[in-house]
Amino acid sequence: MQQIKLKCLVIREVDFSEHDRYITVLTEYGRRIEVLCRNARRKGSRAANAARLFCWSEFSLYERHGKFSFNDAELICPFWGVTQEIESYALACYMSELAAVLSSAEEDSPALTRLFLGALRLLSEHKRSPTIIKPSFELRLMAESGFLPQLDPCAVCGASLEPDAVWFSVREGTAACTDCARRLGADYRQLPKGTLAAMQHIVSADLKKVYSFSLGGDSLRILNEICEDFTIYYTDKLFDSLRFYHSLVQL
Fold first, then answer.
1. pLDDT tens, 205-228?
2. CA-based Rg of the chain, rounded to a whole angstrom?
3. What is the pLDDT of residue 71?
4. Which tens digits make up the pLDDT trace of 92-116?
5. Which phi and psi (to 5°) does residue 6 adopt?
6. Pick from 113, 108, 7, 3: which is nearest to 59 by CA?
7. How far is CA 121 from the centre of its chain?
8. Distances from the Cα of 102 to the Cα of 115, 147, 151, 173, 201, angstroms
């Protein structure tokens, strides 16, 4: 049995028996692992706070044959501020579910953990609207997971695209000029300049600046619709947490 130390973000918790808990975490390297926390729910347990949902903690773990069990932990940052508003909590739950789908137990993806930590910090401190954080998290996570949308040039004719004449297909994951989009059919949707600029920023900015932009009106509404449709199409999954979020937030 090997003892290791890892900084981890708790993205799921399941209580069982009288005192125990299973947690799913993203390690600092972006790998998803399951951890058995025995006696985590006993009064005075060091895991009582550190091993809670949306907490960033340093864990001391025992590892044996790819299975992990809790030994000790030190809480680094509890993002409990996301629970103060139901919209923020619903979004955090959706991001957790999406991160669980796109992370791996076999491969590292440190950008995923960094992206999630940034989103939780902004939500917890109420520094960005959920309607900015959600599409940014979705689109950048998809890009980091191998689903980078092509936003220039036209994927059909190869022509450079003018900002006011860009059409995007969720199914193809590519942009097209007006002539090509009209010829190919209704799957292409025209992007407002603001939406296009936001998408370009999200996929190319340094991870610390992914959420650093402003947008409103139809441009923000369309950004949310396209990023969500793109995510659902390529993950091929309907998320219960997303339905809950939409019951609370309407653009």
1. 999 999 999 999 999 999 999 999
2. 20
3. 86
4. 999 999 999 999 999 999 999 999 9
5. -145, 140
6. 7
7. 13
8. 13, 11, 22, 18, 21
Count of CB atoms situated within 10 Å of the CB of 184: 15
Q: What is the dihedral of CA 216, 222, 223, 225, to 10 degrees?
A: 130
Sign of the torsion formed by the C-alpha atoms of 110, 112, 118 and 124? negative
Cα separation values, 74 from 7, 24, 33, Å: 9, 17, 18
- How is residue 108 written in tokens? 């590292």
Residues 191 and 230: their CA atoms lie apart, in Å, by: 14
Q: Which structure tokens are listed for 72?
A: 């000790």
pTM of the full predicted structure? 0.94
Between strands 67-78 and 32-37, the pairing is parallel
Measure the CA–CA gap between 167 and 179, rounded to whole angstroms: 10
Q: Are 68 and 2 in contact (CB under 8 A)?
A: no
